[in-house]
Amino acid sequence: MSSKDVSTALTCKNKLGESCFWDPRSSSLIWTDIDGKKIWKLDNKNQSLDYNLPDRAGFILPRKKDGFIIGFPKHIAISNQDFSSFEKICDVEINIKQTRINDAKVDPYGGIVFGTYNEDPDKINRKPIANLYRLAPDLSLTHLLSNITVSNGIAFSQNENIMYFADTPTGLIRKFEFTHDFKKLHELESNMTFNDVGEPDGATVDINNNYWSARVRGKCIICINTKNGKIIEKIDLPTNTPTCVTFGDTDLSSLYVTSLRADPVNDAAGGNLHKIKTETKGFKQLLTDI
Q: What global pTM score does this model have?
């Protein structure tokens, strides 16, 4: 296991930092503070900006055109570059009051795979009423999976047509093979469940097809060999609640980690953005055709 040098990239004190990615269009890190109703940007000169949103954003992703795709609690919208205008393009689960949009990734065919999250405050009795969907470039919405409580851990191994997904409370990182435009989705066997390292939250895949998982309430990031399902590396963090990971910087060799500010008294680093220099690299961020 590793104890790599972990630095604080930004003391941003997010209520719930999530959905981070390195935007190749602006050479900057972008992420959302869901409960803070903000989008954050950290450029390659270490200058930060934050933008107020009209509602909570479960995800933000970049477009091939200008602007971003944002997942608000019950709809998906196109935003302009400075987050001053929003065009709704798709309603989601408007008849299920307990759920909101959560994790998402751009898929290799230009669409977006995203999931929902049952945010009933009674966590013990929360029902698996959330789902996983794909929004295609033509704005058609396809249902992919059901019987989910907290959608997380979506990541693509781009050169293998493999998708990873985790329903956080189950602890299992699931593995799927998909065909062109997701016309078929076939679940593969997975043994990627790990004890004593928290629960799976946001994730990314590196160029060696290893899966990097933020372990919320586990105070660490783990790197998993996706062939044998074993942990290759565990990196301890100063916060107990990391939420999402992505590779960034010009050479895509730094791992950025967002986090949740759950306990400011006992976990002062919670909510900040952390950075880890790695010995691998990530894939270049995909841009959606939406």
A: 0.96
Indicate the domain borders of the chain.
6-277
DSSP E strands in 92-205: the ranges are 99-106, 112-118, 130-135, 141-148, 151-157, 162-167, 172-178, 185-193, 199-205
pLDDT digits (tens, 9 = 90+) for 211-261: 999 999 999 999 999 999 999 999 999 999 999 999 999 999 999 999 999
**Considering Cα of 166, then 140, then 19, then 205, what sign does the dihedral take?**
positive
The topology under which CATH files domain 6-277 is Neuraminidase (2.120.10)
- Give the contacts of 155 (CB within 8 A, at least 6 positions apart): 105, 163, 164, 203, 204, 205, 211
**pLDDT value for 124:** 86
Position 158 scores a pLDDT of 80
**CA distance from start to end of the chain:** 40
Task: Please give the backbone phi and psi of residue 125, each rounded to the nearest 5 degrees, phi first.
Answer: -105, 15
How many C-beta atoms surround the C-beta of residue 208 within 10 A? 12
Three-state SS at 199: strand
The token pair at 172 is: 């299992």
Confidence of residue 123 (pLDDT cuts 50, 70, 90): confident
Query: In whole angstroms, what is the distance from residue 114 CA to residue 258 CA?
Result: 19
- The residue type at 22: W
